[in-house]
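Worked example (supplementary).
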Amino acid sequence: MPRRAGERRRLVQQPSMADVAAQAGVSAVTVSRVVNGHASVTPETRERVEQAMRALGYRANTAAQALATGRFGTIGVVSFDLTATGNLYIVDAVIREAQQAGYGVNLATLDAAIDARLQAAVRRLTSLAIDGLVVVEARILDAPSLRLPDNVPVVVAEGASDVGYPAVGADHGAGATAAVEHLLNLGHQTVHHVTGLADSYPAVRRKEAWQRALRRRGCGIPEPVTGDWTAASGYAAGLELLRDPGVTAIFAANDQMAAGVLRAAAELGRRVPDDLSVVGYDDAEVAGFLNPPLTTVRQDLAGVGKHCVNVLLTAMRGEKLDWSTRLLAPELVIRSSTAPPA
Amino acid sequence: MPRRAGERRRLVQQPSMADVAAQAGVSAVTVSRVVNGHASVTPETRERVEQAMRALGYRANTAAQALATGRFGTIGVVSFDLTATGNLYIVDAVIREAQQAGYGVNLATLDAAIDARLQAAVRRLTSLAIDGLVVVEARILDAPSLRLPDNVPVVVAEGASDVGYPAVGADHGAGATAAVEHLLNLGHQTVHHVTGLADSYPAVRRKEAWQRALRRRGCGIPEPVTGDWTAASGYAAGLELLRDPGVTAIFAANDQMAAGVLRAAAELGRRVPDDLSVVGYDDAEVAGFLNPPLTTVRQDLAGVGKHCVNVLLTAMRGEKLDWSTRLLAPELVIRSSTAPPA
DNA sequence: GCTGCCTATGTTAGCGCTACCAAGAGCCCA
DNA sequence: TGGGCTCTTGGTAGCGCTAACATAGGCAGC
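After joint prediction of all chains, the assembly is encoded as:
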């Protein structure tokens, strides 16, 4: 059966506003007003429309709304590997906070190497489907061929504002300093360090602060061992460091690696905390239940995520931003993995 | 300055297809064809258009594309708490796989209690902005007032197909059975169990299989202790169970809780594995580096996520689905936390 | 040289929604 | 009684894109 020129099959077999309008005996505009909670609709009309919506199972077409308003009701999040504790906690908080504000979240994760297909996904994310973008970890900005959108606000979680965007992060400097000073105050001569991924922003900040703290106290600065955030890398680092019987204190850049160090110590017969003190970072859920319970630095990563979203929402409203980097204070949680050296 | 009726400010100050078309001296349709890689465009025209796009920094407007085609290039994911290892690994894999297929991911997380604002976010997710939906964990389907879309395919990760949708999951029955039989084969009289969240699908499956396995071997079935997936709950459960000196084997429904049990044992002076054997579940990254390294059940959660997306993509192409539940086989990883009873 | 067909591009309309303007109804007060 | 006000509702156009159809030009085959 031939169709009239221009006539096209309904793409979505869902009822549209026009259907609801017809059912309720009002115009589409009135339906729109009800959907968006505009004022100046009589209670009776509203009720009639809502009844029609229920009857037809109406759902607003987000794409059409977005096209008409230029707003998408969605914020984008780009992050590296979610299985890294830090990224996860931030992303989780971003999602919660965005949802609280009535926004959906479009999440893209990147591998270090961005291949062509992935690029397509990221390009989609960064095209015109979001009202704002949260970049988790400044290192992402270095990703080749990642072109960020220039028409929506961007906020960086775990970065400094020198990256060209407002940034929110935990105060890794303060956290690492607290960890090192805690160990030095216990009487350790120096503190060894297992770093996170070499080019990660938090890893670099923690390493720098560890060095500074040692220097300030006039301690020797041992060569740090580079890890990759995993327990396996912490274990390997632990085996390496503990070949030296003089090592009495190790500060690992996260709890997973600290767990690896604890394991290495156990295997080599070094008692913690008697022979060796270990400090982690993150206060992951399991940290307090390792053997022994781990002294660590609790970061308010949920706060970072929350803050990010709030800065972003402010920018999205077009209000002026406080452009300075916000740093959230960490807290040293002392448990049983640290003690004075024997 | 008065504007003509109907004239409206450009909502997005981004160049549109019309701008590119003008710049390249072609029609908008030709630009569209280039953008979508359609055939029948001469190389010269294509080149001219591409140059114009680069010059103007053109990005396609996703909302307009979606409105015109009825396709969104996005799949939705609904999950509970991402900080639970199982959910995280599945969601992570779903994102990767969707991106590989050129789809973006819209992620919503739910708390047990869905409040009004959250509902708005979920409603947005499940309105007409996605081409398909992955529900992580069958329990989500029980969430009050969560109305799933009826016009796009839905797949459930960690559920059975009796929920009314195709389902993909890990074989918790096989995993729990392997864990229990491993312990019984070592000579333990029975095996105690710390469960996951009471109404969680995987938790229930694991508990049932644990019971079945004990019954099959004619062992007594001790009262299980209910946990909530956290190390803290595992610790509490451990303290409770270990009041009984006759307890020699504990199977925890995930590694975090197993870590808590290990901690409780250490505190009470029960040596693992000499006095007590412990088995976890998940093979979380840290499991092999606990003290002692944890015997656990490795699940292919990445496989579950991947499989989900593939089933979903099949359904989205309108192809017929194999409607049966797919179960991915787990693998028992034996480490040092299990041994014959003293 | 004409028909017929194929290829490259253009024209048109409409996806579902909302901003803007207009208009009718009801009301108050002079 | 009428002018001006508010409150509710409707008409219209257009957001940026693409499917379907239309068309111009080229070229093979007879």
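Two points are worth noting when inspecting this output. Residues 85-100 of chain B form the longest helix (16 residues). The two ends of chain B are 92 Å apart (CA to CA).
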